[in-house]
Write a structure and sequence with these properties.
48% strand; mainly beta; 6-stranded antiparallel sheet; Jelly Rolls; 5-stranded antiparallel sheet
Length: 471
């Protein structure tokens, strides 16, 4: 038996999650799985996510059907709208703003200081004077029956009905019309097998038309949308605009990026999470971006770690950092059904509407609303200590490097067996004594705990005593 001469160190997790990759070719500074850990705050370390705080509560317990902030040229008239059930509420005060609607996904867009709300059943517009169902700057009574997905593009308002795209004229006298000269509609191909129209968004120069299984673009000059590829979306709320691009979900393949051309798959690093998204939740995947990170709510997932080992996590959000291309799975105390920005004073916040009549701010404090703890997991890559064919034994001790992680449990898994506890973290450097030698060909480790206080930082592990049983 020979002891490795040097201490083996695992001290860099700057690549974030990269899953379902053979240990022979895995990126050394990646992790195969984490929960509630961020990798862009301190490069090389994993830092626990921030928490959530209550923005407002509405009457009753129901799913959020839409979230949007009306931004007025007079900032005092700004209002955060939250659609729950058959009403639209002030998302901060909880006061009812618009009632007796059909309980359906509510979508919003602002143009000419007026916000248009469409839900496929009713059309309403809002200014500081209140809601109207006829007239107004956006000609709300002229909106085609069944219209959804309002959006402004090139000084026109657009909406969709099944497979047809409708648009207004450009403003005349400070208002637009859905029927006057200059307005019109466009039939989006039906014969491509792409399904019905699911959402509208835009990138510089194009309006993007999302169907269930295909994606088109149109610049208002072309007489027919260009058929790009058989990639679409089941959820218009998953389509997020950031930095001149669209990012969206197409199940079961994953998350894509496009600037109007062929979409690029970006979610391969979190393939285990993508595979775990329930098909029943595809139409409910929703997201938002602060132009640095994109957040997608993907519901409850059961992650398959192979060899019959699974773990279930509720209320999961996938966070993608645009600059570093890092992925981080996050688990919240609440399930978000709609996300949006909320400008409060000088702060631009991300808020989410949940399944219990609440609007919550993300990234505030270090616990979820009502002081609910944030459970975190950081899993190591496989360690075979460059001798996969031989048994190895880890003796005496393992050093854990961390900050504010007191009480965290160090667990080990030997040759794809069960996770077992081998000790707890006490300080910035913890010498975890090995009471029973760890013997295996392949080792995995993870640190597990929850926090309601300060953000936790995990730096890694050192293995000073590893013996190799050479044949």
């Amino acid at each position: 038996m020979a002891r490795l001469k040097e201490t083996v160190k695992w001290r860099d997790v700057s690549a974030g999650n990269i899953q379902k990759v053979s240990s022979d070719i895995t990126i050394p500074n990646s992790v195969p799985f984490s929960m509630n850990m961020l990798f862009d705050r301190v490069l090389g370390e994993a830092v626990s996510r921030e928490g959530t705080g209550l923005v407002g509560t509405v009457a009753g317990v129901t799913n959020c059907l839409g979230l949007f902030q009306h931004l007025d040229s007079t900032s005092a008239n700004n209002v955060l709208f939250a659609a729950f059930g058959t009403n639209i509420y002030n998302g901060v005060t909880g006061a009812s703003s618009l009632t007796t609607l059909t309980a359906a996904s509510a979508d919003f867009a602002t143009f000419l200081n007026t916000t248009l709300m469409l839900n496929g059943n009713q059309a309403r517009s809002y200014t500081s004077a209140g809601w109207v169902s006829t007239g107004g700057n956006l000609g709300v009574n002229g909106v085609p029956a069944g219209a959804k997905f309002p959006i402004e593009f090139k000084d026109r308002m657009y909406a969709a009905v099944t497979d047809r795209l409708y648009y207004t004229n450009t403003p005349t006298g400070g208002a637009v019309s859905w029927t006057a000269s200059g307005s019109g509609s466009l039939q989006v191909e039906q014969e491509d097998g792409g399904g019905t129209l699911q959402g509208l968004n835009k990138v510089p120069g194009y309006i993007l038309i999302y169907k269930q299984r295909s994606l088109k673009r149109w610049n208002f000059d072309s007489s027919f949308p260009e058929d790009l590829i058989n990639i679409g979306t089941q959820s218009h709320k998953s389509v997020v605009r950031a930095r001149g691009k669209n990012y969206f979900f197409y199940g079961p393949n994953g998350f894509y990026e496009t600037q109007g051309g062929y979409p690029k798959l970006i979610s391969r690093p979190v393939q285990r999470i993508v595979d775990a998204i329930a098909s029943s939740f595809y139409a409910s995947v929703n997201g938002w971006s602060d132009n640095d990170n994109i957040y997608w709510s993907v519901g409850d997932i059961t992650v398959d770690f192979d060899r019959g080992f699974t773990e279930t996590y509720n209320n999961v959000v996938l966070r993608f950092t645009i600059d570093t291309q890092q992925w981080a799975p996050l688990q919240y105390a609440h399930e978000f059904r709609a996300m949006n920005q909320y400008i409060s004073g000088n702060d631009t916040l991300i808020v989410g509407g949940d399944t219990g009549g609440q609007v919550l701010q993300l990234n505030t404090g270090n616990s979820d609303y009502n002081n609910q703890p944030i459970k975190y997991i950081l899993q190591s890559p496989e360690f075979d200590f460059k001798n996969r064919e031989y048994f190895k034994t880890i003796n005496e001790k393992i050093f854990v490097h961390s900050d504010r992680a007191q009480g965290a449990e160090l667990q080990s898994r030997l040759d794809y067996g069960n996770w077992e506890s081998i000790g707890n973290v006490k300080d910035i450097v913890t010498e975890v004594q090995i009471k029973r030698s760890l013997r295996a060909r392949v080792f995995e480790f993870r640190l597990v705990n929850s926090t309601t206080g300060e953000q936790v930082k995990l730096r890694g592990l050192d293995f000073p005593n590893v013996d190799v049983e050479e044949a």
